[in-house]
Amino acid sequence: MSELSEFLKYVPIFSQLPQDTIDMIAKIGSIKTFSKESVILMEDEDGSAMFFIVSGKVKVSRISSDGKEVILTALGKSDFFGEMSILDGLSRSATVVAIEDSELFIIQRNHFLDLITKHPEISIPLLQELTGRLRNADMRIKSLSLKDAEGKVAAVILQLADTEGVVRKGIVEIDKLPLQQDLANMAGTSRETISRTLHAFAKKELIEIDGSKLRILDYEKFQSMFG
Ligand code: CMP
């Protein structure tokens, strides 16, 4: 089995497919590498391909007319993006930029639509993933519209803990905290607010910051205060 087929088997939406179909998918797509900070696709462009992350990490964001960035999410190994334009035929809903050197597997629109028609079992995990993204988006709307500064920053910490946190001795640790400006763009607040709020959380012994590591000292308490 090729390395690519091996990767595709672990992509959740393909995991139920028989081996020969996985091998066929490996043949209809192509691999492309993007260095850190390169733009993979841009909001408002026409879309004709869907992307799967073989290695690396990307951020999905939208830029306001005055140049402010809102980070919608970060995606990593075996996640996909670019499906929205493929499915509805409209322009790209957001900009996607590599935040690490990234290797992507790319499938053209007609091939992906063909694949869903011939293998409808892909639809269920695809819909599950899209439902998860809608739930996250709902949480963010709540956070952006209802929460004060502490609540917004805490919501981002909880989101990072959810996707990247590792539990060590009952403490949830986020190994590589994004830059403060990126945290601000995720929380919909300013870099100064991030700095001040993290400091306040540390003073209340809710979190501990150690270089680029952030530890949530009592996850359940933090979750019940801000979740
Ligand atoms: P598309 O609109 O084709 O191009 C931009 C991609 O960003 C989009 O498909 C999705 O794959 C991804 N995307 C847009 N909004 C979100 C979101 N809220 N959460 C996760 N991914 C998103």
Describe, in plain words, how this protein is organized in 3D:
The chain is α+β, with helices and mostly antiparallel strands. 45% of the residues lie in helices and 25% in strands. It contains nine helices and twelve strands. It has helices spanning 3-9, 19-28, 83-88, 109-118, 123-146, 149-164, 180-187, 191-203, 219-226; strands spanning 30-34, 39-41, 49-55, 58-63, 69-75, 80-81, 95-98, 102-108, 166-168, 171-174, 207-210, 213-216. β4 and β5 (69-75) form a beta hairpin. The mean pLDDT is 93. Adenosine-3',5'-cyclic-monophosphate is lined by residues 41, 47, 60, 72-73, 81-85, 92-94, 96, 133, 137.
Put the structure in a nutshell.
The chain is of the alpha+beta class and 227 residues long. It has helices at residues 3-9, 19-28, 83-88, 109-118, 123-146, 149-164, 180-187, 191-203, 219-226; strands at residues 30-34, 39-41, 49-55, 58-63, 69-75, 80-81, 95-98, 102-108, 166-168, 171-174, 207-210, 213-216.
